[in-house]
Design goal:
disordered N terminus, 6 helices, 74% helix, mainly alpha, 0% strand
């Protein structure tokens, strides 16, 4: 980067000022994307890289635990989104995925609260329950109800 000077100190000051200006612009715009690591960690490249690896490993462990909980008892999706939130403290891609997910969940909640959609959902649920009740009644009428402990030996 050419700042018009051959002094290395001035280049560093100019790049730091430009970096600060970009951060202020980004904060002023409300984007809030980027690392949330403490400043003393961000100022040291190797320490920041280690921090990112640590955050990635912890987030990965939480996401994997959530994936395991999907077929097993447990709050699988909540844990997966918790892992994404851990990743979002450090990685822009995770922040963008989390924002997209929050936006979609909010839109779905607003659609679900729409009176027309609620009426349709209630109607479909009642129709489904009536069909299940009729099928269960036909099965019981045809085969009866035999408790497992009353099965006769043949």
């Amino acid at each position: 980067m050419n700042t018009g000077s051959d002094e290395p100190g001035e280049v560093a000051v100019a790049s730091d000022k430009a970096k600060t200006d970009r951060q202020e612009t980004a904060e002023g715009a409300g984007s809030g994307l980027g690392s949330r690591a403490p400043e003393f960690i961000k100022s040291r490249r190797l320490l920041h890289l280690s921090w990112q690896v640590g955050v990635f490993v912890v987030g990965l462990a939480v996401v994997v635990a959530g994936i395991i909980m999907l077929p097993l008892p447990g709050p699988g999706w909540v844990v997966i989104f918790g892992g994404m939130a851990i990743w979002a403290t450090e990685f822009v891609w995770a922040q963008l995925v989390l924002r997209w997910t929050k936006r979609k969940v909010t839109e779905a909640a607003q659609r679900a609260l729409d009176p027309k959609v609620r009426r349709r959902n209630i109607t479909l649920t009642v129709i489904g329950l009536v069909i299940i009740g009729v099928l269960a009644g036909i099965y019981l009428w045809k085969f009866g109800l035999v408790m497992p402990w009353k099965i006769e030996d043949q």
